[in-house]
Amino acid sequence: MYTRAKDSESSYASLSSESSTDAWTMLDFRVDLSEAELLSDLLWNLGVVAIEERPGSSQQTVLRTSMGDDSSGVRARVSEHFPNVLISIVYVDKAIAETWREHAEPTWVTDEVALCPSWVAPPQARHVVFIEPGDTFGLGNHPTTVLALRLGLQFCSTQQRIFDLGCGSGVLAIAVSKILQCDSYVFDIADNARHVVKANCDINQTEVKWQEQFASFDFDVVFANILAPVLISESRVIARCTVKLGIVILSGMRTEQVEKVLLSYGDFTEVGRDELDGWTSVALQKN
């Protein structure tokens, strides 16, 4: 899945060793065509706002996106999963890079709940959750986020203790805190996630707590909207911090990946599933 930028002219990008306050730091990933879709999925799950597909060669393409000024963690993750991908840092004039904001619009999760960019007039909805993505995270409009929140609203109860692993902008935890008054905790390995979560809490006049030592806590509901291989590798940790009969919402999976991921959750019973645009989210209850 790709989102093409409105202006793909290469003249506005400069390969420089120093960033500027007038430029966004972008990453270019030169990838074989056979791996482009898989790399795109990884980038979406790491929380990018958009991916621009740029000309490469007959066998390769270039994916451009933004992950903030300090993208070392993202580059390390991509190199781990795609060792043959060439990564370059590019600086793009902010006046051009920010044009996507002019086209942002609210995303409806249910008939009553909408996710709305913070600078856009809110729709007529019973519940509106405002999102400011910063320069690294999405607007909550990716299918994995929509699906996870739909299931979360279905299975979360008022004032439960909630945890969002890989929270990004914090949209899932903020939404259930705002709508259901849940006691919400979050964590993400992304460098500036904590700052963006705090900003979004302020916009929505709600509170979530940053929790690095989450494995020692017990949660009624755990959100995990992350890459399928990470859902597998972190399955024991996710299970350990979920109370008996608690709910885990797994998202970030292409539909064809679901059954493989569920093999790592043998202590759970599936209680819900939703699908959108080739992505699937699953709600599990701990036995």
Q: Helicity, in percent?
A: 25-40%
The total count of helices amounts to: 9
Strand order of the largest sheet: 11-10-9-12-13-15-14
User: What is the terminal separation in angstroms?
Assistant: 36 Å
Number of strands: 15
Per DSSP, what share of the residues sits in E-state strands of 2 or more residues?
A: 25-35%
Integer-rounded radius of gyration: 19 Å
In the CATH scheme, what's the topology name of the largest domain? Rossmann fold
Mean pLDDT, as a whole number? 85
Largest sheet: 7 strands, mixed
Task: Give the CATH architecture of the largest domain.
Answer: 3-Layer(aba) Sandwich
Keywords for this entry:
Rossmann fold; 9 helices; 287 residues; 5-stranded antiparallel beta sheet; alpha/beta; 2 domains
Question: Could you please describe the fold and organization of this structure?
Answer:
This protein is 28% helix and 32% strand. With 287 residues, the protein is α/β, with parallel strands linked by helices. It has two domains: 10-99, 2-Layer Sandwich (Alpha-Beta Plaits), CATH 3.30.70; 104-286, 3-Layer(aba) Sandwich (Rossmann fold), CATH 3.40.50. Strands 11-10-9-12-13-15-14 form a seven-stranded mixed sheet. The protein has a five-stranded antiparallel sheet with strand order 1-5-2-4-3. A three-stranded mixed sheet has the order 6-7-8. β9 (161-165), α5 (171-180) and β10 (183-187) form a beta-alpha-beta unit. α4 (143-155) packs parallel to α5. The longest helix is centred in the N-terminal third of the chain and has 13 residues, at 33-45. The protein is globular.
